[in-house]
Amino acid sequence: MDLSINGQQRAIPDGAVEPDMPLLWVLRDVLDMTGTKFGCGVAACGACTVHIDGQAARSCVTPVSAAIGKPVRTIEALGSADQPHALQKAWIAHQVPQCGYCQSGMLMAAASLLAKNANPSDEDIDNAITNICRCGTYPRIREAIKTAAREMRGGTGKAAKAPNTPAAAPANAPGKAL
How does 84-119 read in b/e, with b if 16+ C-beta sit within 10 Å? Predict the structure, then answer.
């Protein structure tokens, strides 16, 4: 079985995995690419988000067979320490990460959004980013996405000072207190 991951062909030895094995476990356990995280195993939290054929996908429920012949992009290819992606720079500027566990999936979901929508509104962001952040940094995530969008459109992308007080989570945020 051959997979195209982050622009490279990766051969999976015959018999090493079953076709219905979740892509997440192929990435983590077979290919030793541990940037993509396991969170829930039922596609609810988004920690495992990768891009398959340019679309955000929850790898914990996506069989590896669904990725054959399609380009897969993981957090490892989003940017680098020397050349971080606009989202990664904005994440730091807005102090988005708290515990950090959801961040790889959150960044991949945000990258998928910005690939389709260069100037997302709050509503666009709330509808596209259904990932769970247990630390509740949704307002910072929203602002970081807007900052990255500005940079990607050629603006300065300069972030406003990160808020010191928490704001309400998006209406569709799982686990949001009512």
Answer: ebbbbbbbebbebbeeebbbbbbbbbbbbbbeeeee
Tens-place pLDDT, residues 143-169: 999 999 999 999 766 654 444 434 444
The one-letter code for the residue type at 41 is G
Residue span of the structural domain in which 130 resides: 86-152
Judge if 129 and 98 occupy the same domain.
Answer: yes
- The domain that contains 61 carries what CATH number? 3.10.20.30
Helical ranges in 39-155 per DSSP H = 86-93, 103-116, 122-128, 138-152
Show the tokens assigned to 35: 């940037």
Is residue 66 located within the same domain as residue 101? Answer: no
Across the chain, how many H-helices and E-strands are there?
A: 5, 5
Q: Could you tell me the sign of the dihedral formed by the alpha carbons of 84, 58, 71, 65, in that order?
A: positive
138 occurs within a structural domain:
yes
| Residue 167 Cα to chain centre, angstroms | 22
Q: Which positions of the chain have pLDDT values less than 70?
A: 156-178
Strand partners, 8: 5
Instruction: Name the DSSP letter for residue 159.
Output: P
The answer to whether position 46 is within a domain reads yes
